[in-house]
Specification:
Radius of gyration: 17 Å
Helix content: 25-40%
CATH topology: Maf protein
Number of helices: 6
CATH class: Alpha Beta
Number of domains: 1
Structural class: alpha/beta
Shape: elongated
Number of strands: 7
Order of helices and strands: EHEHEEHEEHEHH
Amino acid sequence: MSPHIPLLLASASPRRLELLKQVGITPDLVVPTGIDETPLPKELPATYVRRIAIAKAKKSAAEHNGFLVLAADTVVAVGRRILPQAETEKQAHDCLELLSGRRHKVLTAVSAISPTGEQKTRIVTSVVRFKRLSQQEISAYLSTKEWQGKAGGYAIQGQAAILIAFISGSYSGIVGLPLHETIYMLRGLTI
């Protein structure tokens, strides 16, 4: 039996923490990285999400020796376009109008670094389709304030669930941390 390796979750997301706890994992330390998450000009969603997850993991590993570091980033993408983490009601409204009646991708990159410096990174892509949304449905959802700080202006684990007609892929990945892939990644770094 290997000794306990302390786990650091490099994230400010309460959803990622909740997802880990759902499968019986409580990080020893939770530290947001505060890195600049601005997409580069013409950066593709998969390139962006991978770059950000790796940057978060590397920054945390450099600052906290001896930890197994877990970092992730999630983006909502329509084609090559990365939708913002909605900070204003207008941003959320624009995202919902764009997503109405169409499919989009949710990409979550997970990056982990062992205390010895071994790093693994994986991107999990899921497809989501919203029903065609009326202005009343958009207004009702905006009034919940669930959209605040959420990629693409919605939270699938909340009231937006009634607006979603179809998903393919990892539900937990859409929430913010693909559990199946994450657990196997962590096991691979601790054996």
